[in-house]
Specification:
Layout: H1 4-7, E1 8-15, E2 25-32, E3 37-44, H2 54-62, E4 72-75, E5 81-85, E6 112-114, E7 119-125, E8 128-133, E9 136-142, H3 148-163, E10 173-178, E11 185-191, H4 209-225, E12 228-229, E13 238-240, E14 247-249, E15 256-257, H5 268-281, H6 297-300, H7 314-327, H8 332-337, E16 358-362, E17 368-371, H9 377-382, H10 395-405
Keywords: Chromosome, Telomere
Subunit structure: Component of the EKC/KEOPS complex composed of at least BUD32, CGI121, GON7, KAE1 and PCC1; the whole complex dimerizes.
InterPro entries: Kinase-like_dom_sf, Prot_kinase_dom, Tyr_kinase_AS
């Protein structure tokens, strides 16, 4: 089940008047990762001050009880529900022009599965479900949001994973997921590794020295052989395969390919150092520091209080780590950028749906203003364009229904 603190996020507050006036009408669009839909929360500036995201906690009280047709709610200054709206004009959901598989030549050799063939078993996190098909359990990763950056990250991850050579410490790619009507690419599946991440692991389960060795070898392979920088190495993105007892790295949506997507302060060597520190000490406070303000000396120069079972003395871990870091400091960026086996793929194509013109108001002379490009789902439907719908019942309601049927 999706953790409560991960379930909602807000686009921010929109004010119809001075934001310093408590009576100013305020609208906030809130995304629900559980039901995969936007809900507009309406109230006043008194309840919704700038930047505080009060709207997410307000919606959380009512989200599981709203009809699927509801696209906006109104609350009073105490956060109590005073009205709901099913007016389609209140729906600010953006249209996502998913690409037909026929336009994705870089994915043409991938195996596929249709969305209708996937049976939902659980909701593991934002944009990730535990699903099954043909009696096989898989992790289904998808992007239901029309934001260009998220679409580019999803495109990059499915291309990267599908082209990586098989590796015992990388999550195995499985299939491209297509919607059923027009065979558009809406996500992908990977092998499902049960047991949870190292962030959730029992601190009494010994962390093996071999896992650190595997992780450093994997990072060298990705960085120096393939020119790939994962950029998000952390305990939450590491699993242990119960079949092989190998460490497994997943979640490549922040990965850089050479200079493309490379971000300061997110190099994988730093990621390994901070990951090991967090695992050994159970100290997570460095995760709250922006990557660009962190450096490995923050943890390399201090004593590590061990709060995790290890299969070797902590000094063995630290000595190995220090020696490995030293091997990666010489011509670090040059070696990464000159990796001999770099993987390539094309940029995200522009969906043909965005070439369809739509009306966007009129001039002072009364002439229609025509536009192409991104659009709301409401406009796309008016133009007769096909829209894949992600909305689904809240998981709590499904679980209750299942319990009542037993």
């Amino acid at each position: 089940m999706i953790e409560p603190d991960e379930r909602f996020f807000s686009e921010g507050q929109g004010y119809f008047g001075p934001r310093e006036n408590p009576a100013t009408e305020t609208h906030c669009n809130v995304w629900d990762w559980d039901q995969l839909r936007w809900i507009k929360v309406k109230g006043t500036a008194k309840l919704f001050p700038p930047g505080e995201d009060v709207e997410t906690s307000v919606l959380a009280q009512f989200a599981d009880y709203l009809s699927p047709e509801v696209c906006a709610i109104t609350v009073n200054d105490d956060g109590l529900l005073t009205g709901v709206s099913t007016d389609p004009e209140e729906d600010d959901t953006f249209f996502v022009g998913y690409l037909p598989l026929s336009l994705c030549q870089s994915l043409a050799d991938c195996s596929t599965v249709y969305f209708s063939q996937l049976q939902e078993l659980d909701r593991l996190g934002p944009g990730v479900d535990l699903s099954s098909y043909d009696s096989q359990r898989v992790a289904f990763k998808f992007n239901p949001l029309g934001m260009l950056r998220r679409l580019q990250m999803s495109w990059k991850e499915m291309n990267l994973l599908s082209k990586l050579p098989p590796h015992p410490n990388i999550i195995p790619f499985d299939r491209i997921v297509l919607e059923d009507v027009q065979s558009r690419v809406i996500g992908f599946t990977t092998k499902y590794i049960p047991g949870g991440t190292l962030a959730d692991a029992d601190p009494k389960r010994p962390f093996r020295f071999e896992w650190l060795r595997q992780l450093t070898q994997l990072v060298d392979f990705l960085n120096l052989e393939l020119g790939i920088m994962h950029q998000d190495i952390a305990p939450r993105n590491l699993l242990v395969d119960p079949e092989t007892d190998d460490i497994i790295l997943f979640d490549f949506d922040w990965a850089a390919n050479g200079k493309e997507g490379l971000m300061g302060g997110r190099d994988d060597v730093s990621g390994v150092v901070f990951t090991l520190y967090e695992i050994v000490t159970n100290d997570t406070h460095f995760t709250s520091i922006p990557h660009w303000d962190r450096n490995i000396d923050m943890v390399q120069s201090i004593e590590w209080a061990c709060h995790r079972e290890l299969d070797s003395d902590v000094s063995k871990f630290r000595n190995f780590l220090n020696e490995w870091v030293a091997t990666r400091t010489d011509r670090a960026i040059e070696r990464y950028l000159n990796a001999p086996k770099r993987i390539t793929w094309p940029d995200l194509p522009t969906p043909p749906d965005y070439d369809v013109p739509f009306e966007l108001g009129s001039t002072e002379e009364g002439e229609t203003i025509w536009r192409t490009g991104e659009r709301s789902r409401r406009i796309a439907l008016q133009k007769g364009q096909y829209c894949f719908r992600w909305e689904r019942p809240p998981q709590r309601r499904l679980l209750k229904k299942a319990q009542n049927s037993m």
